Amino acid sequence: MQDYDVIVIGAGNGGLSAAATLAQNGMRVLILERHNIPGGSATSFCRGRFEFEVALHQLSGMGTTEQPGPLRSMLGRLGVLEELSFVEMPDLYRAFIPGKLDVTLPADRAGVIEILQERFPGEKEAIQKFFELVYAYAVELYTCLRNPSAAQGAFPLLQRYAFKSAKDVLDEFFTDPLLKAVPGAYWGFIGLTPDRLSFSYLAILFFTYIEMKPCHIKGGSQALSNAILNAFLAHGGRIRFNCGARKILVENGAVRGVITEDGDEITSRFVVSNASKITTFVDLIGREHIPQKFFDDMRGLSQSPSGFCVYVGLDCEPAEMGIDASTTFILPDEDISGKQFKRMKVLDTENDMVAFSCYDVADPEFSPPGACQAVLVTLKYGEPWMRVPPAQYAHEKYRCADAMIRQVEKVYPDFRGHMEEVEVATPLTFMRYLGTPGGSIYGFEQYMKDSLFFEQPRVSPVKGLFMAGGWVANCGFEPTLMSGKSAAGAILRMEG
Ligand SMILES: Cc1cc2nc3c(=O)[nH]c(=O)nc-3n(C[C@H](O)[C@H](O)[C@H](O)COP(=O)(O)OP(=O)(O)OC[C@H]3O[C@@H](n4cnc5c(N)ncnc54)[C@H](O)[C@@H]3O)c2cc1C
What we know:
Elements: E1 4-9, H1 13-24, E2 29-32, E3 44-47, E4 50-53, H2 70-78, E5 86-88, E6 91-97, E7 101-106, H3 109-119, H4 124-146, H5 156-161, H6 166-173, H7 177-184, H8 199-212, E8 215-217, H9 220-234, E9 238-240, E10 245-251, E11 254-260, E12 265-273, H10 277-285, H11 292-299, E13 306-314, E14 327-330, H12 339-343, E15 354-358, E16 372-380, H13 383-386, H14 390-409, E17 419-425, H15 427-434, E18 465-467, H16 477-495
Parallel strand pairs: 1-2, 1-12, 2-9, 6-14, 12-18
Antiparallel strand pairs: 3-4, 5-8, 6-7, 10-11, 11-12, 13-16, 13-17, 14-15, 15-16
Helix pairs in contact: 1-9, 1-16, 3-4, 4-8, 6-8
Residues 9-14, 32-35, 40-42, 55-58, 60, 189, 244-245, 274-275, 279, 307, 309, 377, 434-435, 441, 469-470, 475-477, 480 line the site of flavin-adenine dinucleotide.
């Protein structure tokens, strides 16, 4: 008999939800996690009196108790909802361009339209029509995904817009570049600039966040990861922390188990990998067990950027600095044609778009009384950071952090004076803690050619091996948690 039915490699969102679902259904499951805490990106860390949220800015898919979204239903089935509290955020985001633009979009369809029409009265009708399209398109998209073989002609909007970039559609509807920059700013949560990003993702983002509202988790995403892990343990699951997987054992085209980084050989009938797809197939399995065609297909994809994040603990409440939106996108200018894409490939953060989040706006108890925390994120590819000599690393990281803080001061001038704790994460930090190539935080990039219409078939080239997480699902909490459930479902179906 094998040691376990299933070994799950990695305790990120995908790994945890797969493991908990399998354990709940009576399977003997072991998780191997290289880090010393569960969650992957969905974690926190402490500095001084602050517990900093690593990743989660806006959680999608929750909906309400009366009208639960897919994620709420899934967490309910895992039995973790009672342990968690969610706070609905009233706004989508504030979009700010120094001296040119300052609008806050509420998480409400009529409200978004009204705010934009007030600021851009000359394009009133176009604004109305754009959001009509976003909604109608998202509905067609979800209908099509559920029933792709529906009669030809059933999806006229998909036929017209599925292969357009977000920029194509913003250009079609709007003339004022400042207006285009407002909805365009949401690209910061997907990782590709509007000129490269499939319109489908922008539409999905607006539709789901407006319909189901962006949420914050009390206690941060670590609370969610802990709750899923506790459910897993309560169903008899086992986890080893500080214990990476070094090899996935394959015999006659089927998994046989895993060798840990400590050299232990543990056998299992199934393996679920939450590590990156590249790591899984190139390093953990090895080319000799995988058909070349699989690598040829993967070669056509590109890795998403990593992040450069500045985590700041502040000695006052948000209102004292004038912060009244949970998320502020600070844009250097109105460009949506790819200038920011080029900036993701350089070290400097001067003139980058900064996604600024202050969790205490929605949840005043998030930080200690009288304090709050903010996270400044810009997206960066890992390569320039890999070229920094070790002796210059600290200098470069604080220089780049300083440039981002200067961007923030353009919106919140008192920010620097209230800083009490600062920690900085570069792409190398994400490489270290997530184990992803180049520190990628969003898996493979979602170019039009790689958008959801062209997803690779999910047939595993190795019997008994399943993938979960951001490299097989779309990026984000909701999709990665769902991907773990799907991987578990596939195993349970095989078990009959
Ligand atoms: C700064 C930032 C901001 C974000 N903001 C948002 C947001 O606002 N909303 C949203 O929905 N999403 C957001 N995301 C994206 C979201 O966090 C990720 O898509 C999601 O958490 C990825 O989950 P995953 O299942 O792919 O696992 P990951 O988080 O990638 O975790 C993988 C785990 O596998 C482990 N591992 C890897 N290799 C091995 C090995 N060989 N052996 C053992 N363990 C291994 C790692 O240690 C890690 O714990 C953000 C991400 C970041 C980094």
